[in-house]
User: Fold this.
Amino acid sequence: MNIHLKKLGLILILVAAIVGASLAFSGHGHKKVMPAKCPVCHMTLSTHWTKATPVAVQLKKNGPVYYCCNKCKMPKSALYKVPKCPVCHMTLSTHWTKMTPVAVRLTKGGPVLYCCKGCHMPAKYLVHVKKTHKK
Ligand SMILES: [Zn+2]
Ligand SMILES: [Zn+2]
Assistant:
């Protein structure tokens, strides 16, 4: 009997924890800066592009851009529309490639995007980032 009750208690605690966590998540989320979680696949979103998180998403309009996994069924409305380069008009890349090695930030607080070497990007847009692929 005792063991039974203990088990039940444990289950209740677990349930409470799960409910609590999901309530906290569906709340307004303005409290502390917590790592953002994907509302679709529930993984912790990355603040920068990695091979595991190549999909740029913007959960709130004008909010920060995060990166989720490419298995995620993120609605189109939540996908970050990668802007075009204001100078050379190519669509910018969300991550460093050989073709797009120049890191730029077009808006204050916006994500770092990458443009081609040949672009005459004004210096105010240039970002000096440490290479993210080394760890
Ligand atoms: Zn996701
Ligand atoms: Zn450009």
